[in-house]
Specification:
With about 270 residues, this protein is of the alpha/beta class. The chain is about 45% helix and about 15% strand. The protein has one domain: 3-Layer(aba) Sandwich (Rossmann fold), CATH 3.40.50.720. Bound molecules: nicotinamide-adenine-dinucleotide.
Length: about 270
């Protein structure tokens, strides 16, 4: 059991975490559940494994945990995910836009369909989920939206045109919505992780090896950790703890902020 499980600061809150069948999202969903929130998990993957994870979260933290299979490519399905939280759990207090994909290729070879999918999942999906969730937050007089952006919301790297464009876009969306709802006790922030060791990072290694003509070890040390002065991957637990803090009442004055958690990367 997590060391945080005794902390029930989010008891009776309802949280939606997109892309929580893997990596950072799963860590965030578990962390919010550990603090007492009911959670809607979402993401792609094997149905039986997802059901196992859903049941385990509900049981381990004594909260209600539902699964929404909404595809982040569909605005209608995203609205359905928010409606599920409202119908089954009474509303939506916390929304974490985390689902994301990556593709690494030089701009003149970048596949059109990868551009479209990255912009849709990493940026447009957050527009749809925020639009659907805000009325419930306004009605309840409290809300927390945390967008999982990236250090690539603040700086660029070559060969990641769509990802960097989407992440810079989500920074703009975050600031805009924060201003719109600031007077209604709803905060909207983006966090910008550096490299976190998850399947998303692992999967881009072969493409980066090909794009730059490097070995796997060279990609890890000379490309990924090269950017991070700590020379350590950021961990899923550190990222989830940051999100949980932003969801707390103590963080009520933090809004419209685009905050790095990147081992010093963007201090360069
Ligand atoms: P991951 O690949 O482990 O998880 C991605 C999640 O998104 C999965 O649950 C997957 O099922 C879901 N997803 C993908 N496409 C989807 C779709 N069409 N509909 C619904 N769900 C979908 O990745 P991760 O590393 O945990 O990344 C999570 C977020 O953190 C992403 O937004 C990513 O850009 C961001 N991020 C990651 C890192 C890193 O180094 N891992 C760094 C900075 C930011």
């Amino acid at each position: 059991m997590s060391e945080f499980s005794a902390n029930h600061r989010l008891e009776n809150k309802v949280a939606i975490v997109t892309g929580s069948t893997s990596g950072i999202g799963m860590g965030i969903a578990r962390r919010l559940a550990a603090q007492g929130a009911h959670v809607v998990i979402n993401g792609l993957g094997d149905a039986a494994i997802i059901e196992q994870e859903r049941a385990a979260i509900a049981q381990e933290f004594s909260i209600r945990c539902l699964y929404s299979p909404a595809n982040m490519l569909s605005g209608t399905e995203i609205a359905g995910m928010v409606q599920l939280a409202i119908d089954e759990l009474g509303g939506c207090d916390i929304l974490v836009n985390n689902a994301g994909i990556q593709h690494v290729a030089p701009i003149d070879e970048f596949p059109d369909e990868k551009w479209q999918a990255i912009i849709a999942i990493n940026l447009t999906a957050a527009f749809h989920s925020i639009k659907a969730a805000i009325p419930s937050m306004k009605a309840r007089g409290w809300g927390r939206i945390v967008n999982i952006a990236s250090a690539h919301a603040l700086v660029a790297s070559p060969y990641k045109s769509a990802y960097v464009a989407a992440k810079h876009g989500i920074a703009g969306l975050t600031k805009t919505v924060a201003l719109e709802v600031a007077a209604e006790a709803i905060t909207v922030n983006a966090i910008c992780p550096g490299y976190v060791w998850t399947p998303l990072v692992e999967k881009q290694i072969p493409d980066t090896m090909a794009a730059r003509g490097l070995t796997k070890e060279q990609v890890i040390h000379d490309v990924l950790l090269e950017a991070q002065p700590t020379k350590q991957f950021v961990t899923v637990d550190q990222t989830a703890a940051f999100v949980a803090f932003l969801c707390s009442d103590e963080a009520a004055s933090i809004t419209g902020a685009i905050m790095p958690i990147d081992g010093g990367w963007t201090a360069h």
